[in-house]
Amino acid sequence: MSVSLYYSASRATPMTADETAAVERVVAAHRASFPYDDEESLCLYDGGGSEPDEIVAGSTKMPFDPGHVLPVLTHVLNSVTGLRRALPGARWRVHMDDLDVPWHETGGYALPGMDDPELAEAMKDL
Fold first, then answer.
1. pLDDT band at 118 (very low <50, low <70, confident <90, very high)
2. 69 phi/psi in degrees, rounded to 5
3. Mind listing the pLDDT tens digit for each residue in 72-90?
4. Per CATH, domain 4-124 is 3.30.70
5. Closest CA to 68 of 111, 123, 109, 113
């Protein structure tokens, strides 16, 4: 069974040219620094999502390798944080299947304990 991270942004107005360029920069930076060639990365759907007013939508399947889960999740959530900051006024939903990922104004998207180095080290040994 796989778990995926889903992310989407909606608002009544479409993205401006500057916002589109900012989104493209976030995606390019993410891809350039993604740590694994063999894992799924930030994946935005062409043309936004299927819901009305959706301007950005995508998903990332989490790795089966437990040692890769936290680095992939952290990297993708940092990128989604960058996307949110590039699209002011949008309503965001970020979730792993049925679990909503909380937003923190200063730190962005993160799950509790994600930045715990002991947890990350323990996950490598699974």
1. confident
2. -60, -55
3. 999 999 999 999 999 999 9
4. yes
5. 123
